[in-house]
Design brief:
Order of helices and strands: HHHHHH
Distance between the termini: 72 Å
Radius of gyration: 18 Å
Shape: globular
Strand content: under 5%
Number of helices: 6
Number of domains: 1
Length: 146
């Protein structure tokens, strides 16, 4: 399948999942574009652990930026934008190989899938922590008692 068809399908998938999750209409095109940007990085780097990690890191950073610009929660954007990266076919193939009794292949595919999932989780967490560290919530000062 050509890369532009994959990017269009990625945008449609991100937008469809956003609609399914009752995301506000104004944020759906932004979520879709963030998903396309992340998936394009994934296509450039291949389906390696580093590809999952860097694509998810880009998605996480863009979601944090858009959340601040649009005054929304970052998870609103992340849930839809990350969907095209989730390695569902790897999970499916792992279970298929287990059912077929091909345990060597199941372990191989399962380990690669698990590393991809861990890369996604680590990247989203890192982007959230980085933005929280550089943009802490302003705390009201407590009144001083004397």
């Amino acid at each position: 399948m050509s890369w532009w068809v994959q990017l269009i399908a990625c945008g449609v998938a991100a937008a469809s999942f956003s609609v399914l999750m009752h995301q506000p209409w104004k944020t759906i095109p932004v979520t879709s574009l963030i998903g396309i940007a992340g998936y394009s990085v994934f296509l450039l780097l291949g389906s390696s652990t580093m590809g999952f990690f860097l694509a998810s890191l880009l998605i996480g950073v863009l979601c944090e930026i858009c959340a601040r610009l649009m005054k929304r929660a970052a998870t609103l954007f992340v849930t839809g934008a990350i969907i095209p990266l989730v390695p569902g076919i790897g999970l499916y193939n792992t279970m298929l190989y287990v059912v077929e009794g091909n345990y060597e292949r199941a372990v191989s595919v399962g380990a690669a899938t698990l590393l991809g999932i861990c890369g996604i989780a680590l990247a989203i967490t890192m982007s959230s922590v980085i933005f929280t560290a550089f943009h802490p919530k302003r705390q009201k000062e407590a009144p001083h008692e004397e």
